[in-house]
């Protein structure tokens, strides 16, 4: 099948398919005129790559894992790589949770201002830095 057909069957852009091929995640053959063609197994490969991307794995990690997937063998290295990626994602989740919690605090203060957080409530008049809307 041609690249446009593969894109249509997988819902992935032609540009992404070219990127997958450049990175070594997808293989094609070329016609005499240089057009890419893919076997029917390419649909499953693209779906697998998409699942790995959706799991938060970067392309360099996917490239490292695909030979193990192709061989049907889990190596200690591939297992360690997956654990490392999981730990990276867990750390990102912790950072995002902390950022959300800080934002919740700001929202709460905005909804329920107190003199501690709002200079105007301490003095009863706007601070010199306050912007007055016209």
TrEMBL record:
Q: Keywords on this record?
A: DNA-binding
Question: What is the organism of origin for this protein?
Answer: Curtobacterium salicis
Q: What is this protein called?
A: DNA-binding transcriptional MerR regulator
Keyword set includes DNA-binding: yes
Checking PANTHER family in the record gives: MERR FAMILY REGULATORY PROTEIN, REDOX-CYCLING DRUG-SENSING TRANSCRIPTIONAL ACTIVATOR SOXR
* Keyword field contains Acyltransferase: no
Domain HTH merR-type: from-to ranges? 1-68
Name of a matching Pfam family: MerR_1
GO MF annotations, alphabetized? DNA binding
Q: Which InterPro entries match?
A: DNA-bd_dom_put_sf, MerR-type_HTH_dom, MerR_fam
Q: Which CDD domains match?
A: HTH_MerR-like_sg3 (cd01282)
| Disordered: annotated segments | 113-134
Highest taxon of source: Bacteria
